[in-house]
Amino acid sequence: MQHLYRPAAFVSGKRGSSSTKMATLAVRRVPLGGFSFENCKRNSVLESEANKVGFSVPTARKTGTTICGVVFKDGVVLGADTRATEGMVVADKNCSKIHYISPNIYCCGAGTAADTEMTTQIISSNLELHSLSTGRLPRVATANRMLKQMLFRYQGYIGAALVLGGVDCNGPHLYSIYPHGSTDKLPYVTMGSGSLAAMAVFEDRYKPDMEEEEAKRLVRDAIAAGIFNDLGSGSNIDLCVITKGNVDYIRPHDEANKKGVRTGDYKYKRGTTAVLSKAVNPLDLELLEESVQTMDTS
Amino acid sequence: MNSRGLRSQLKDSVPVAGLCPQGAYGVQDSLRSGFTSVKNELLPSHPLELSEKNFALNQDKMNFSTLRNIQGLHAPLKLQMEYRAARQIQRLPFLQSSNLALDTLRGSDDTIGFEDILSDPAQSEMMGEPHMMVEYKLGLL
């Protein structure tokens, strides 16, 4: 018989020939879904042990990012860089930080990559169910409220800083959402480690009611400022232009950091070695049998 | 027919967490949980642990109290009666119930949260003992 540990209730077995071997039987209560805190104590013990020896626990992959958004005349432009870092190493040179929430709402994510990914996917599913239930196109304020309630519930342990933008029946909206659950509704927002560089560009050149091309150029310049002045951001610039009834997901909009082309080559050119003489001997081969065997590509 | 014996009901009301060591064979599992200390057993291992365990309960309490303030006492009373009835629709003692009626009442049948994605009880690696669990439920143990 199996021994069970981590039980919720203990019962001591008194009868039955099968229970004479063990002192304590356990009856398991059904476990709840969701986060399990079983390993927290063990992890803190391991971490303190590792720090004593000199190792450091591996860090989660962050997106160390520049993300921003701006409201223009007909809609919203969201921009993001494409570098994901893991400590001091670039983990992904071309990751996609603009996540789909609904056909008219997109969300950029900074912070821990897994957290932003899962959070936006959960909210996207919930918003889809909600819109099926109401029969209407979802509103940006709904997505904002769902996100802020979930992030506040987990008290900032879910490290997702988001820029949420979209166009609904009330016009274009742009929100910034912080990991602890506070939100701001603004005409232009930036988040991530490169947010100060991007905000500097916005503060200088933002005007209300811009045209689409002007807004795209502004966002591109803000992200470029983040890419060139912040170590955590780099590679390409992605843009997402959302207007009423139309979404333009431009990936990549601009390759700010192109990898260089090698100028020299170590291979020898043909003709480096001189050919003294050439002799060609054709081989007489007879074709006996030809058969075709088809591959199973189902 | 009352399928749950009185003894099992009494046992349910006394949670015995933390009083017995939690390794196999009833001995402290030093490899996995480190050395014992009273502080470790009494305090939660993560700041979110307690709030997550009681989240559904607290949400319900808050909703019922708002409902009572808006619509009067009968509204939460009626709803709680329905919850109690829905909670009693279960399968045989060892089997998982889908709790469909309870989910529909709560409104969690059209929302997705971490409790649906992470740590799905249907995929759990540990199993109870069918005979022991049936006997526990019937109060025969």
TrEMBL record, chain A:
GO BP terms: proteolysis involved in protein catabolic process
Give the matching InterPro entries.
Answer: Ntn_hydrolases_N, Pept_T1A_subB, Proteasome_bsu_C, Proteasome_bsu_CS, Proteasome_sua/b, Proteasome_suB-type
Q: Where does the secretion signal sit in this chain? A: none
Q: What keyword terms does UniProt attach to this protein?
A: Cytoplasm, Hydrolase, Nucleus, Protease, Proteasome, Threonine protease
Give the catalysed reaction(s), semicolon-separated: Cleavage of peptide bonds with very broad specificity
Q: Does the keyword Hydrolase apply?
A: yes
Using the record's annotation, list all stretches that form the Proteasome beta subunit C-terminal domain.
256-292
Q: Where in or outside the cell?
A: Cytoplasm; Nucleus
One Pfam family for this entry, by name? Proteasome
A single GO cellular-component term from the record reads:
cytoplasm
Query: Protease among the record's keywords?
Result: yes
**Which residues participate directly in catalysis?**
T65
Q: Care to name a GO molecular-function term for this sequence?
A: threonine-type endopeptidase activity
Positions in coiled-coil regions:
none
* Family statement drawn from the similarity comment of this UniProt entry: Belongs to the peptidase T1B family.
Task performed by this protein: The proteasome is a multicatalytic proteinase complex which is characterized by its ability to cleave peptides with Arg, Phe, Tyr, Leu, and Glu adjacent to the leaving group at neutral or slightly basic pH. The proteasome has an ATP-dependent proteolytic activity. This subunit is involved in antigen processing to generate class I binding peptides.
PANTHER family recorded for this chain? METALLOPROTEASE TLDD (PTHR32194), PROTEASOME SUBUNIT BETA TYPE-7 (PTHR32194:SF4)
What is the protein's quaternary organization?
Answer: Component of the proteasome complex.
> What is the protein name for this chain?
Proteasome subunit beta
**Species of origin:** Oryzias melastigma
TrEMBL record, chain B:
Q: Which Pfam families match?
A: UMP1 (PF05348)
Name of the featured protein: Proteasome maturation protein
A GO cellular component annotation here is:
nucleus
So what family is this one in?
Belongs to the POMP/UMP1 family.
**Keywords, in A-Z order:** Chaperone
PANTHER family for the chain: PROTEASOME MATURATION PROTEIN (PTHR12828:SF3), PROTEASOME MATURATION PROTEIN UMP1 (PTHR12828)
Q: Which processes are annotated in GO (biological process)?
A: proteasome assembly
Q: Which InterPro entries match?
A: Ump1 (IPR008012)
